[in-house]
Amino acid sequence: MLSCFDRLIFRGHLPLSYPRGLEGFLHRQGVLLKDFKHYAPKIAERVKAHVKEQVERAGAPFRHLPRKVRMEEEARQRAEKLHIRAGIVCGFAQLETCRTYRLAYGEGRPRLKKDFRRCTVLYVFLMHPLLGLIHVKLETWFPLTMQVYANGHDFVAKKLDVLGVPYSLADNAFVAIKDFKAAQACADRLPKQNWPKLLGALARQFNPLLAQELKGQDYYWVTDQSEYATDVLFKEGKVLAALYPRLVEHALACFSAEDVLKFLGRKLRGNFAGEVRTHVGRVRAHDGKRFEGVRVKHAMKSNLLKMYNKTAWVLRIETVLNDPTEFRVRRWQKSRRALTWQPLRKGVAWLWRYAEVSRSANGRYLAALAAVDNDRATREQIDRLTKPAPFRGAAKRALQPLSPADQELFKAVLRGEHRLHGFRNRDLAQALYPRKASDRAERRRRCGRVTRLIQLLRAHHLVAKIAGSRRYRVTPLGERLMMTAIYVRHHYLPKELHETA
After folding, report:
1. pTM for the complete prediction?
2. Which of 184, 195, 338, 365 lies 20 to 30 Å (CA to CA) from residue 213?
3. 283 by DSSP, 3-state: which?
């Protein structure tokens, strides 16, 4: 296994990224607002000429694209063909719709207003000595927003080259590594890099205004999108080929919306305003040569959790964070003068927390898929459920995993909202008895029934008591057995009976 960042998109914002800031910049440059429409094109041409000069000075091609092409593939092929280890690989320019400004008239004085327009966008691909192949995207119109695209697998490959560790990289996935421990240590260094310094150096290289009109100012860098992947590498492709269809079926049949929230470290609450969706689709190769896989994608608002077979040997679990405010981080709060749990922000300083959140989500997802891993062991464990089990000197009845009553009990215990902090007697009673009790005596009878059911599950080692509390948690054994029983009753058995008939 190897866990590391995959695609990282950093976005840089200048102090003039809002109307009043740009108006102040124009005032300092002695440019009247009415002349902004003449001043902006001159700056755009100057930026384009500067970037083009940088690319051509490195001996790399620079061309305008009349239509969209796969720029990264072209740049990677050129770098491999010419054995480029450092420096600019190539540059492109194309028209795109970008956020900019226009002069608006109305009550009071004229003012700048946000607008969208077609403008030239520059792409520069370069082989970074630390990050590997990256590309810089620079909009030529104000507010001159910049983006840097990096890939964590290229970073790990660069580190392994320095260490002299042999590896094989195919389709952005490691299909062989001599020392996985060393590779994981390299991957863990990526969030700890001095990102403001690295990204600031790229900004000063390609934005000429930072040396003159904006001298002394820097971009504020945020993580616009992060993909964190956990790759499970199989020794034989036929093993993954036989296992993967069952993993897909299991994810569709057993993973509910509550489970998806649990995987992402969230708990379903009444004030949750959003959608949780699951979609299955085929990952197609654009060049017709790469491996075509099947992807299961779970979406929690704009954040994603995906599973797909990256190559014939690699199973990839990937967490994509687009909105980090759905998660929490401990940071200093001035009003309380203490560290408190607050929404996670996009600043690159919190990239280490992105890694923590994503890696935990991938780990929970893989743990939930463990029920599919070993059919024989699971069958033996299910057989033990059908026999009485001792508990505190007495024998508890055998379970009937396919019976409606025990199935409802399994579903109630496995509810996603119970996964993070466990469940109490009251929580299980509410799940098993949706209608409110008519009187106090009925509530006590329900409490007693639920207590006996919890003891039954404890006797079979499906749940365990959390020390120092009145809460219970599902054990790894219980996770596998109960989810398998639900899958068999609601998906596998009906399908087999239909085919037999």
Report:
1. 0.77
2. 195
3. strand
pLDDT band per the 50, 70, 90 thresholds, residue 273: confident
What's the CA gap between 418 and 230, in Å, rounded? Answer: 25
CB atoms under 10 Å from CB of 288, counted, come to 7
- Tell the burial category of 309 from Cβ atoms under 10 Å away from its Cβ (0-12, 13-18, 19+): buried
Topology of domain 377-500, CATH: Arc Repressor Mutant, subunit A (1.10.10)
**Which segments of 256-390 does DSSP mark as H helices, in order?**
257-263, 351-368, 375-385
Q: CATH 1.10.10 occupies which residues in the chain?
A: 377-500
What is the band of 479 on the pLDDT scale with cuts at 50, 70, 90? confident
Q: Do 122 and 53 touch, CB atoms closer than 8 A?
A: no
Percent of the chain with pLDDT over 70: 96
Burial of 381 (0-12, 13-18, 19+ CB in 10 A): middle
Exposure string of 30-57, with b = 16+ CB inside 10 Å and e = fewer, is ebebeebeeebeebbeebbebbbebbee
pLDDT for 402 equals 87
Give residue-wise pLDDT tens across range 339-379: 999 999 999 999 999 999 999 999 999 999 987 755 556 66
